[in-house]
Amino acid sequence: MSQVFESIFSTGFFFSVIRVATPLILASMGAVITSNAGITNIGIEGVMLVSALTGVFASAYGFGPWFGLLISIITGVLCSLAIGYVSMSLKADSALTCIAFNTMAVGGTVYFMYAVVKDKGTTIALNSGKLPSLEIPLIKDIPVLGEILSNHNVVSYMALVMIFVVYVLLYKTPLGLRIRSAGKAPNALSSVGVSFLKTRYIALGISGVLGGMAGAFMSMGYVTWFSKNMTAGRGFIALAADAMGNSTPLGAALSAMLFAIAEALSYALQITTISPELVQMLPYAVTILGLIIYSVKKSSSDKKKREQLAKN
Amino acid sequence: MRKVTKMSVNRFNTWFEVLRFLIAIFIAFAISFIIMSFSTDSPFAAIGNLFIGPLTSVRRFSTVLEMMIPLTFAGLAVNVMFKANQFNLSAEGAFFMGALISAILAIYMPGQAKLVLIIAIIAAGIVGSLVCAIPGALKIKWNCSEMVVSLMLNYVMLYFGTYIFNQVARDPNSAYKASYKFRTGVGLSNIIPKTRLHSGIFIMIAFVILTYIFMYKTKWGYKLRMTGSNIHFAKCAGIGVSGVIMSSQLIGGFIAGVGGSVEMLGMYTRFQWSALPGYGFDGVILNIIAKENPAFIPVAAFFVAYLRIGADYMYKQSDVAAEIVSIIEGLVIVLVAATAFLAKFRHRMTTKVSKNMLEAGGAKE
User: Fold this and answer.
1) How many pairs of residues across A and B have Cβ atoms under 8 Å apart?
2) Closest Cα in chain A to B332
């Protein structure tokens, strides 16, 4: 048992929490933007997967990891807009569109991976490189904190910055107001002459940027290759984080951190005698529990509100 | 006179839907063909193999039917859950758990083999019901998003199931991760020699018929459809919507669980799944192709299975990865689900047909 505590209360553990949290935070920020615009974007899972692959290709055959990151982001935007085009302009059900897109992403990435590297599992054979890690001056010299916070991948720091950026975007800019109205009161938006469709397209585009970054981190930061279905439901977890965080950037980021802790815990506990499957189950079970707690709270507060209204 | 007009427009609509579907398939293949021509020198040979692959031998054609069985079960399960307007994707987890439970019973349960078989299938159905009931219950009680919960639940079931498998059924002497062998005689019998096609196909046919009757010929099914299409109206009509939604999730889960057990007891002699089988999402795909009509689901399942087996054959013959098939499937779904696709054409044609009918009717008068 002491072994367990040692592995959990170590700087290495908290370091890995941030590492594991990076794609979840980025993807959940994407989910926050779209859900504020009134879209449940399950497609973010596929967006991450596709951009992880294009990033690796661009990095290996182009100009290195930074170029890969750029291509990942562009891919993310294009994929998101394609989802938007089908669900909004071609009027297909958005959940079905996303499921179709995810299906295509899982198979399509394998197809193209095989076409390029003749391997259906991973792209290890490609020397695609890694985005650099950053040492933060000053912070790296603080004893414990430095070890936890410094020397992370550059995308991890971007993820933390993105929480702030998304917050400002949603609550302090005209565009944010439009995005939120597109979700809450689309008619009000049209009545002041702002195109509802265009706003949703923009929201999807931004979520594509974030999803693309998350994908790039998966294949050029977390590990240095692309492997089949490597996102493994992280996009879905991001959706859960968004739901639990009530579609606020900070709430979603905190929920994403919670899931990251559960995931990091599952890695840390693998050295113990506890069954690995039960530990692997943890992040998903915690997600469901979190959703339940959030929904119970929400439904009781809704009830109170209704009672208050009835009294008045 | 007016009745004639209406019927003709209806007939036009059916005809149009079929046409639209064919055009969607054509476009999907055309795009995939273009993609394939980038990665192979002989795309014509590749796509030819994709089309004729399943027809090249009895063995291959029977694989299509074998694959069609679990797909149909998945499609029916999702159909019943979706009809109540619940986007519950936990058929995936229910399939996995159903297969596992039936495998465990097939290994350990004493008694007459046929009886064990029946009990194993029913037990799998019950377990499937329990799995799919979770997102439904959470939705009804606290309004949790059934979609997100079910997505997470599938992974929970995968790892929980693997844990049970390792604790209870895993054969330590097996070279790969597999359970002990099922008892002899506990398994769905083979119906065509030299293939793996098993009598589960009859169970499948029975379930298709039962689901259709349930959905369109019973009061219960009517309540379910009404709740799904307009919950407020259903409430006003005095239907206990919570109960209806819950029962639809239980039935859907039951079908998925039975599907898992039929697949396991028909195709395998040991439990050896280490990942989610993917049937939950396949079920959604089938429902889009079949326009959510249970009677068409086996047809859609046949179509999808044919494509996948064809793609496998293509991979072996032409070195084009079989995964191209998921791009074809995705494109077909997108185009079929896209209501605006060809909508202008439809509008123009509908107007024309109605006008013609009116004029024809007018001339008679």
Assistant:
1) 146
2) A100
Chain B contacts of A277, Cβ < 8 Å?
159-160, 162-163, 166
Domain count, chain B: 2
Which of B87, B151, B343 faces A236 most closely, judged by CB atoms? Answer: B151
| Calpha distance B316→B46 (Å, rounded) | 10
**Neighboring chain A residues of B142 at a CB cutoff of 8 Å:** 292, 295-296, 298-299
**3-state class of A40 per DSSP?**
coil
Q: Where are the strands (E) in chain A, listed by range?
A: 133-134, 152-153
Residues of A with Cβ-Cβ distance to B35 under 8 angstroms: 111
Contact B325 A278 (CB under 8 A): no
Same domain flag for B266 and B225: yes
Predicted TM-score of the model (pTM): 0.86
Q: Domain of B144?
A: 63-309
Distance from CA of A240 to the nearest CA of B (A): 6
Cβ-defined contact of A114 to B321 (cutoff 8 Å)? yes
Question: How distant is the Cα of A235 from the closest Cα of chain B, in angstroms?
Answer: 10
Domains of chain A, by residue range, sit at: 2-311
In a domain? residue B189: yes
- Identify the pLDDT of residue A1: 57
Nearest to A232 by CA among B178, B276, B134: B276
Would residue B46 count as lying in a domain? Answer: no
User: A112: which chain B residues are within 8 Å (Cβ-Cβ)?
Assistant: 39
Q: Domain check: are B245 and B126 in the same one?
A: yes
Q: What is the pLDDT of residues A176-231, one digit of tens each?
A: 889 998 888 888 888 888 888 899 999 999 999 999 999 999 999 888 888 888 88
Q: Which residue has the tokens 């004639």?
A: B4
Q: How far apart (Å, rounded) are the C-alpha atoms in residues A166 and A268?
A: 31
Q: Do A252 and A299 touch, CB atoms closer than 8 A?
A: no
Residues B10 and B98 in one domain: no
The domain defined by A2-311 folds into: ABC transporter involved in vitamin B12 uptake, BtuC (1.10.3470)
Residues of B in contact with A86 (CB under 8 A): 334, 338
Contacts of B144 in chain A (CB under 8 A): 291-292, 295
Nearest to B321 among A101, A110, A237 (CB): A110
Reduced to 3 states (helix: H, G, I; strand: E, B; else coil), residue A30 is helix
Higher pLDDT, B293 or B191: B293
Q: Which two tokens stand for residue B88?
A: 């519950």
The helix-helix angle for B146-164 and A234-244 (nearest 10°) equals 130
Judgement on whether residues B216 and B271 belong to the same structural domain of the protein: yes
Q: Are residues B119 and B165 in the same domain?
A: yes
pLDDT winner (highest mean) among A8-22, B74-88, B176-190, B271-285? B74-88
Of B251, B244, B219, B302, the residue nearest B76 (C-alpha): B251
- Establish if B56 belongs to a structural domain: no
Judgement on whether residues B247 and B332 belong to the same structural domain of the protein: no
Query: Would you state the pLDDT for residue B41?
Result: 78
Tokens of B170: 């895993």
Contact (CB<8Å) A103/B153: no
Instruction: Kindly determine whether residue B152 and residue A295, on different chains, have CB atoms separated by under 8 Å.
Output: no
- Percentage of chain B beyond pLDDT 90 is 30
Mean pLDDT, to the nearest integer, of A156-184?
91
- In terms of domains, do B216 and B114 share one? yes
ipTM of the complex: 0.83
Residue B47 lies in a domain: no
CATH code of residue B187: 1.10.3470.10
| Host H or E run for residue A78 | helix A64-84
